[in-house]
Amino acid sequence: MLAQLVNLLENKENGLSLSEISREMKAQPTAVLCMIDLLVQKGKLVEIGPDGKCCNTCGVQAQCNLLAARGKRYMVAPRSLKAAQ
Fold this sequence. Notes:
This protein is mainly alpha-helical. It has a single domain, classed as Orthogonal Bundle (Arc Repressor Mutant, subunit A), CATH 1.10.10. About 50% of the residues lie in helices and about 10% in strands. It has helices at about 1-10, 20-25, 30-40, 65-70, 80-85; strands at about 15, 45-50, 75. A three-stranded antiparallel beta sheet has the order 1-3-2. It is globular. Residues about 80-85 have low confidence and may be disordered.
C-alpha cells in the first residue's frame, strides 16, 4: 500500500490532503496517516501547506492560521531532497 500511496501522489502537482488520499485509496484516515508519517520520515513525501509551501522549512507551523484552517497536504518529495538523504 505504501507504493500505491506514492504512485497516487506522483501525478498530483499540488499534492492531496489526508481526506483526499483516504477517499482515493478507500482506506481509513488513521491508517493512511500512519503510512504518510512513515513516508515523510523516510523522505519519500513532504508535507506542504495549503499555500503550496513546504511546512518543514517554516518555523511557525504551530502558529499557522492557514494550516489550521485548511490542513496539510502531502506530495512526493522533489528529487533534490531525496538525493540529499
